[in-house]
UniProtKB/TrEMBL annotation:
<dbReference type="Pfam" id="PF08241">
    <property type="entry name" value="Methyltransf_11"/>
</dbReference>
<dbReference type="InterPro" id="IPR029063">
    <property type="entry name" value="SAM-dependent_MTases_sf"/>
</dbReference>
<dbReference type="GO" id="GO:0008757">
    <property type="term" value="F:S-adenosylmethionine-dependent methyltransferase activity"/>
</dbReference>
<feature type="domain" description="Methyltransferase type 11">
    <location>
        <begin position="50"/>
        <end position="147"/>
    </location>
</feature>
<keyword id="KW-0808">Transferase</keyword>
<dbReference type="InterPro" id="IPR013216">
    <property type="entry name" value="Methyltransf_11"/>
</dbReference>
<dbReference type="InterPro" id="IPR050508">
    <property type="entry name" value="Methyltransf_Superfamily"/>
</dbReference>
<dbReference type="GO" id="GO:0032259">
    <property type="term" value="P:methylation"/>
</dbReference>
<protein>
    <submittedName>
        <fullName>Methyltransferase type 11</fullName>
    </submittedName>
</protein>
<keyword id="KW-0489">Methyltransferase</keyword>
Amino acid sequence: MNSPLTTDVPAAGYVHGYSRREARRLGDQADTLATLLHSGTSYPPGSRVLEVGCGVGAQTVHLVTGSPGVRLVAVDLSDDSLAEARARVAAHAPQAHVEWCRADLFDLPFADATFDHVFVCFVLEHLPDPVRALAGLRRVLRPGGTVTVIEGDHGSAFFHPDSAWASAAVRCLVRLQAAAGGNALIGRELQPLLTAAGYRDVRVAPRTVYADPSRPELVRGFTRDTFVAMVEGVREEALAARLVSPEDWDRGLADLRRTAGPDGTFHYVFFKGLAVNPADGGACGE
Ligand SMILES: C[S@@+](CC[C@H](N)C(=O)[O-])C[C@H]1O[C@@H](n2cnc3c(N)ncnc32)[C@H](O)[C@@H]1O
């Protein structure tokens, strides 16, 4: 394997972008992992729930299905994603009560203590200052309300057949995300991040995905259509940043695809955190 071609990665935008392919990947991811990620999250009817960074509504559908009767407000920066989210929820959960709002989660247009619960999934990993984001969410959360945060951690990916080229391709994504201001290894940090943002009763637990040929749905839905597709999606950026040669990239992706093959296995850990906004205001770690 050739050594990396460069050590300086130019800053980029949102690493996964807003393509049709990425929208499909988010849907595959959410549907495949719905039970794993959403189990334990159920809000009473009538609760006021805020989802920030709803994207194309892939998690929103599972949120409102798992908590019928909630009044959900879903926020994202992207108008196109919000339009897609609205259509997805109308198709899959037409009874749901959802308001859609284009806003920056760092500058939310809601009064203090508007919500009983906040839900954040696969968003903090893209933010330059996740503690400031979490602390800001406390403003719109009522005292005693909860925040639920779900993030992955690409350092938890190991697989068979093992391959230095495949691992190097995954590291390209980690580096590109870091160059864009994010952190693809954030899952392991959720507990300290929530604590630093002033939440109390912080509980974080790993939710492990393990896929092998005895679980073909998971191999398709997670290994191939979620994880490998995500790495494939940064090919052009990785080559443009000269993080890897085209030959090594192609070898890495071929090896990564083998982990979804007849002799492949894949392991990954998501981290799910639940924490309470303290009634006494707490010490904010901004
Ligand atoms: C990886 S997607 C996750 C979408 C969705 N939560 C899911 O799991 O399918 C991250 C989303 O966060 C949104 N986002 C990023 N920064 C944001 C910000 N400052 N305010 C609001 N949304 C933001 C992006 O537009 C994108 O739709």
